[in-house]
Design a protein that fits this description.
CATH class: Mainly Alpha
Strand content: under 5%
Helix content: over 70%
CATH topology: Hydantoin permease
CATH superfamily: Hydantoin permease
Radius of gyration: 22 Å
Number of strands: 0
Number of helices: 18
Distance between the termini: 37 Å
Length: 452
Amino acid sequence: MVGEQQFGNNPGDSSAGTVQKGSAILQKPFSLFYIWFAANLTIGDFAIGFIPISLGQPLNLTIIALIVGNITGGSLLGVMSVIGVVARKPQMELSHGPFGRIGSSVMALLQWGNTLGWLTVNLVLASFALEIIIKGTYYIFLLLIVAAIVLLLAYYGHEAIRRFELAMSVVLGILFLVITVRSLLDIRNGIPYVPFYKIPVYAGFGITLAASFSYIMAWGPYASDYSRFVGGKREKPRSFSFAFLGGAIASFWIEVLGIMVAIFTPNYISNPATALAHYMGQFFIAGMVALFLGGIAANAINLYSNGLSLNTALKRKGRKLPILLGTAISVSLGIVGYGNFYGYYENFLFILDYWITPWLGILVAHYFIVGPRLNGSGRLPRLYSGAIAYSAAILISIPFMYPPAYFQGPIGAMLNGVDISYYISFVLAMLFYTAINRISETGHKEQLSPVP
């Protein structure tokens, strides 16, 4: 069973491990709305809007792809949030059920690497935006300022992050609303865009859908870290709804805004941050402040969950060491990788996302399909059932993968770069885990049946 306290007693976070239902720190389900709303008002979502425009895709199908991607990806975020409400444990500790302690540690290390990658991405982007505002300041100095702000938020824990995300949902909402109004004024006389179909329409649709889905889905390994603090009547359905709506609305909005900015800045389409600064003209500071604060809003969540993941993997290392280590590594990567940021980190994160969907599929199967029924000794050791289902799903999905900088799966290549491996691995992992455990349970019952 899980339930070890992750960080012990610490300022602003009275129980960072298992949360008891009577705890005074329990929040209303609506808190999940503004946490995920603020976390998705970032350059990451904004950059997704540049993808279909760079591929010359029609706007109507692009909007449909973004809607579908955010509904499906946001639903996974909502489901993971519900599990956190029920179990009241950090997200990666929930892997103990289907994977056992060893397998859970492996999953936690993967999430630790995932959060490190996103920490670095948002650290670089926030520092870059600040550099445009404060001209002539050394980049490394700005990097350290951003890192220090995020470090303080993560140190003071969930309550500090929750309050910060509430403030950012308002501030960032206003800033991006200003940019939205600007784009609406620009399109009054029409949209200066004609699709040029760099790739087939179905391929552009699939790539846009995969990018949108994978971005919001990638918040799944974080969800329970925040939903475990939720309490109140009708907490499960409302937790799903608020987490889903907060993430999906913000993500879709900013992706569409990215489309608009990309259309009006075709010469800067390779760098969304520079494109936004150019698009805003004399009001560029509003755009850069939005990117700066958006990076901090996302990174507060990244660093907090990074520490929780490391503690799940290595067992109670305290609060200070994990967040200091995560900060130090992300700062180092931000300094080393700044010169080739877009070429390296986005491909790295694209690869890293492949581990998430089969893991999510197994958690859905364990907590909603077979887990509650299979608590007897007839079940296979948890490490084996989870590991077998996970490994099989990953292996079968490899031909469907298409991260162009590293590997081109044969089916992904046949589909002109449309990567459907996320969906394949999710469904297969869920089915395999369910089948393995039910077969194990049936076999055990037959062994215990009296001989007639």
